[in-house]
Amino acid sequence: MNINQIIKILKKTESFKVQTDSFLNTLAFTAEKIEYSTGDLIIKSGEKNIKCVVILEGKAFIQKKMSPIELKAGSVIGLLSLINNTYPKDALIAGTKGLALVINRELFEKLLQEFPDFNQNLKSKLISDLNEKASRLQTVFR
Predict the structure, then answer these.
(1) Predicted confidence (pLDDT) per residue in 69-109, tens digit
(2) Domain-wise residue ranges, the chain
(3) At the fourth CATH level, which superfamily is domain 3-140?
(4) Residue 32: beta bridge partners?
(5) Which of 14, 70, 103, 139 has the fewest beta carbons under 10 Å from its own?
(6) CA 122 to CA 117: how far, in whole Å?
């Protein structure tokens, strides 16, 4: 998969679609790309390396106690872990053969320093998401 294809996928994600082309190009070029096969462990439960994974091709599943959550191309997992500096709780297991983009702690910090808009866009997105969830909760409890 080439850089332009990765950028196209990133532009479709909720987490990265508002970022600049310069940011997306840097991310697509510098982040680690990993290939995986069905059953591979992409993120271990309780893993000590904090990272964000963007599914570029294939499917993966977050192993939840009740039922797994399916992720497909364009899904982003672990961004909140990078923001909060917390370890992943659940494993991420490959459901098919595929490709993922991995943003580690070092790259995340570098992106925050080099692209101030990234930091502001993340804050705005989190605030918007929290406000939306609060509104839904208020509706439920009325």
Answers:
(1) 999 999 999 888 888 888 888 899 999 999 999 999 999 99
(2) 3-140
(3) Jelly Rolls (2.60.120.10)
(4) 102
(5) 139
(6) 8
First to last CA, the chain: 49
Distance CA 134, CA 52 (A): 25
CA–CA distance, 104 with 18 (Å, rounded to integer): 20
Phi, psi of 123 (to 5 degrees): -60, -45
**What does the buried/exposed string (b/e) look like for 61-93 if buried means 16 or more CB atoms within 10 Å of the residue's CB?**
bbbeeeebeebebbbbbbbebbbeeeebebbbb
Write down the residue that tokens 């290939």 correspond to. Answer: 35
Q: Show the tokens assigned to 54.
A: 């963007």
Quick check: 78 and 60 in contact, CB under 8 A? no
- In this structure, the number of other CB atoms found within 10 A of the CB of residue 106 comes to 9
